[in-house]
Design a protein that fits this description.
One of its GO terms (molecular function) is oxidoreductase activity. This protein is α/β, with parallel strands linked by helices. It folds into two domains: 9-191 and 230-255, 3-Layer(aba) Sandwich (Rossmann fold); 193-227, no CATH class. 48% of the residues lie in helices and 14% in strands. The chain is built from eight helices and seven strands, in the order βαβαβαβαβαβαααβ. It has helices at 18-29, 41-55, 70-84, 107-135, 156-176, 194-207, 211-220, 230-240; strands at residues 9-12, 33-38, 60-64, 89-92, 138-143, 181-188, 252-255. The protein has a seven-stranded parallel sheet, with helices on both faces. Helix 2 (41-55) links the parallel strand 2 and strand 3. Helix 1 (18-29) packs parallel to helix 2 (41-55) and helix 1 packs across helix 8 (230-240). The longest helix is centred in the middle third of the chain and has 29 residues, at 107-135.
């Protein structure tokens, strides 16, 4: 299937590694011009080179951007619009907020999670929508978590703000659908990323067991019998971000190998 991504301009947030980088790879494979961003210039340089070498697509660019900084976000999209004149695809993505239950997080943690995991997505959407409306085409994919369907113990910040993201995405999708702008939320389950490894390490320390036991028990709960590969996640996001997706909007999808029992 031709996804119609050739020559589209795609911006992928937090894309120097993990799910963001995997998504950038898939968009690049489909011929899109991809702008990667993250907080580390060194990591971005390496990620951009990896994407170029893996896909053979030389239209790969990068720009440093801290998603918690309004100024950085404005600078990023000013760079993109001045260089390309438009934005077709926005992949919103950030690292997860601090882990812990209610007693483990402070007011400062709540504010930081709000800035990083909800307000940042609102700011990036605000930056791209004028261009998408003008060209009567746009795709916004908000990467969230499986906690939007089933809360995860010990992740109260993520459970709270990921749910808020779904409400934002659904409302925005209804407001801009007539402009051929599709807005969807995609929640990863247990994908083999640094974030999952970090949470496994925390669980192992709390339980006093080897981290390998945590991973083995975790995989046993997944009907597919394994963690997902980041590129499997990226392929689904690439479809949602493409012209091939012309009618699916306002949805909250979970990519989890069948783990969740919630309807």
């Amino acid at each position: 299937m031709d996804l119609g991504l050739a020559e589209k301009i795609a911006v992928v947030m937090a894309s120097s590694k993990g799910l963001g980088k995997a998504t950038a790879l898939e968009l690049a494979r489909e011929g899109a011009t991809v702008v990667l961003s993250s907080r580390s210039e060194e990591a971005l340089k390496q990620a951009a080179e990896d994407v170029k070498q893996t896909t053979g697509n030389d239209n790969i660019h990068f720009r440093v951007c801290d998603m918690s900084s309004e100024q950085d976000i404005q600078s990023l999209f000013q760079f993109v619009t001045e260089k390309f004149g438009r934005i077709d695809v926005l992949i919103n993505n950030t690292g997860g907020p601090k882990s812990g239950g209610f007693d483990a997080v402070s007011d400062a943690d709540w504010y930081a999670a709000f800035d990083r995991n909800l307000l940042s997505y609102i700011r990036t959407a605000r930056a791209v929508l004028p261009y998408m409306k003008k060209q009567q085409f746009g795709r916004i994919i908000n990467v969230s978590s499986s906690s939007t369907k089933e809360v995860i113990d010990g992740l109260i910040l993520s459970n709270t703000f990921r749910a808020g993201m779904v409400g934002f995405s659904k409302t925005l999708a209804r407001e801009v659908a007539a402009d051929n702008i599709m807005v969807n939320t995609v929640g990863p389950g247990r994908i083999a990323t640094d974030r999952v490894a970090e949470l496994n390490e925390i669980a192992a320390q709390k339980q006093g067991v080897p981290v390998e036991d945590i991973a083995k028990n975790s995989e046993a709960q997944i009907p597919s019998g394994r963690y997902g590969d980041p590129e499997e996640f990226g392929r689904i996001v690439a479809f949602l971000a493409s012209s091939a997706n012309s009618y699916l909007t306002g949805q909250s999808l979970v990519i989890d190998g069948g783990l969740l029992k919630a309807l």
